[in-house]
Design goal:
The chain is mostly helical. It is built from 12 helices and no strands.
């Protein structure tokens, strides 16, 4: 027996236009030589130009800005981890038994191959950020309190981003649990209403997460290089030091890093003091 199925229309559905996705990417793009944090700060400056001024602030537009900022943070983590795996022997050891997709092995350039390792990795929670640092950099032991704090604060920003992306800005139960259910219970299924100060705070938290991670990773990977790596002379050590400096140094902001030779000198001074049992 046939089953009745109506053929009513309650909205007009147009024919889809053709969208040639293969033509939408810049195939002439060349990966920049900027450090990972310089790339983040440059992207953030571009995103900030889209931020509506306080006198004409649009909360919905603010949600779009928030999406861009979180995407920039994720790009930072992917860039710094990919390049670390290419550069650092210990990072390579951590990842040498991890599998990549066959398509990546066939078609990605060698320098971009570590990107395939990060395909299924997210950077939106304390656990995912911590796991990424442990799995791909080989960091052991308890992470510094300031790093854990900035991950916790940034994870809250990611929950707001999740609301904006998946729920028309509304707060879901799962998001509320992550943020603190008791405090957020009255806001369940209510839309996110970002203010100008709140957006600026979220951007500052995101940038803090990037900068704190950047300093931590730079010190972690540089400090664990064998003592025999260094001759304690800039001329001899420059070739080994510069790739690490180039990966991590902020050279674009008003609080940019010291020149490489100056950072190297401080590094060797700290090594000497440590060896002598002198605090630094």
């Amino acid at each position: 027996m046939a089953t009745f199925r109506s053929k009513l229309s309650v909205c007009r559905s147009p024919v889809n236009p053709t969208l040639v996705t293969a033509s939408l990417f810049d195939v002439a793009h060349v990966e920049p030589n900027q450090s990972a944090i310089d790339q983040y700060l440059t992207r953030l400056a571009s995103i900030n130009r889209l931020t509506p001024p306080p006198t004409a602030f649009d909360p919905l537009q603010a949600q779009l800005i928030l999406l861009g900022v979180v995407a920039a943070v994720e790009s930072y983590f992917r860039t710094v981890l990919r390049r670390l795996i290419t550069l650092d022997a210990e990072c390579q050891f951590c990842t040498e038994d991890q599998a990549v997709a066959f398509g990546a092995a066939m078609h990605l350039d060698k320098a971009m191959m570590p990107e395939a390792l990060l395909e299924r990795v997210t950077f939106v929670s304390e656990k995912s950020l911590t796991d990424a640092i442990r799995d791909f950099v080989g960091v052991k032991g308890t992470l510094p309190p300031d790093l854990l704090t900035t991950f916790k604060d940034y994870a809250a920003v990611c929950q707001l981003r999740h609301c904006a992306v998946h729920r028309f800005g509304k707060l879901g139960v799962k998001n509320a649990i992550h943020l603190g259910l008791q405090q957020h219970k009255p806001s369940l299924e209510k839309p996110l209403l970002l203010t100008y100060p709140a957006l600026q705070s979220a951007i500052a938290i995101a940038t803090g997460a990037v900068k704190t991670t950047n300093n931590f990773l730079f010190n972690e990977v540089l400090s664990r290089l064998p003592a025999a790596t260094w001759a304690n002379k800039w001329g001899s050590d420059k070739a080994k030091f510069m790739p690490y400096y180039a990966l991590f140094a902020d050279t674009v902001s008003s609080t940019r890093a010291l020149p490489p030779r100056d950072v190297y000198t401080v590094f060797q001074t700290q090594r000497s003091k440590f060896a002598a049992g002198v605090p630094f």
